[in-house]
Recover the amino acids of this structure.
């Protein structure tokens, strides 16, 4: 009835909690890059398939996994997110009784450094979570789930490490596309990212936690182009 697609950026620390939260699904597909030792540990407790993908684009990774999904409904989430019992019950109810049409979007809840982020992009941000296998346009016939999905926060170092891994993989993709870094990318793009998250997405209303989160997102942008710069100089 339900296929769960988990997008992994080598998220070893997050995978077990994420997979446990989607145990109600009939099959679980992990897409991305992951060490085989970690994959073996997870497979001992859950029946999952692994779909290797070199992309760091969530949409493309999802499309890679959808080719192997065998059920009528699909849920897609990144490995640092988890589905609560209330949300899982809502998903099962829809998959059992609703017609297989339309996309169900979900809001994200994030407890960052001990504080629930009310702004910083979380107040209005919606992302597709549940949809029928046959859906190709995620903007048509959209609905909103009543319950939110939780973004997992383990600790500051783990969160920053995850952003670093995403930055490194994105740099690899840019390198493959022969995108060359310039001074603008190293300075202006991180500053713009900081402004977007802290000002335009109202991160300042989340206080010091909002600033720290905006800073980490900006630092991720900087590290992306720093890794890219190192790749062109064979210094990595």
């Amino acid at each position: 009835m339900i296929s769960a697609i988990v997008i992994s950026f080598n998220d070893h620390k997050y995978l077990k909690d994420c997979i446990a939260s989607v145990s109600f699904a009939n099959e679980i597909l992990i897409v991305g890059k992951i060490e085989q030792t970690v994959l073996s540990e997870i497979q001992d407790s859950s029946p999952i398939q692994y779909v290797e993908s070199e992309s760091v684009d969530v949409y493309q990774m999802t499309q890679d996994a959808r080719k192997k999904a065998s059920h009528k409904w699909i849920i897609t989430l990144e490995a640092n997110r988890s589905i609560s019992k209330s949300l899982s019950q809502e998903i099962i109810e829809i998959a059992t009784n609703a017609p297989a049409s339309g996309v169900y979007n979900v809001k994200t809840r994030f407890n960052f450094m001990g504080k629930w982020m009310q702004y910083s992009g979380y107040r209005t941000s919606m992302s597709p979570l549940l949809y029928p296998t046959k859906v190709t346009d995620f903007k048509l016939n959209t609905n909103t789930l009543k319950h939110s999905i939780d973004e997992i926060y383990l600790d500051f170092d783990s969160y920053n490490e995850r952003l670093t891994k995403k930055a490194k993989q994105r740099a690899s993709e840019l390198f493959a596309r022969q995108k060359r870094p310039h001074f603008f990318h190293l300075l202006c793009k991180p500053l713009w990212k900081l402004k977007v998250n802290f000002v335009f997405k109202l991160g300042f209303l989340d206080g010091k936690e909002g600033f720290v989160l905006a800073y980490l997102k900006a630092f991720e942008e900087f590290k992306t182009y720093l890794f890219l710069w190192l790749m062109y100089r064979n210094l990595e």
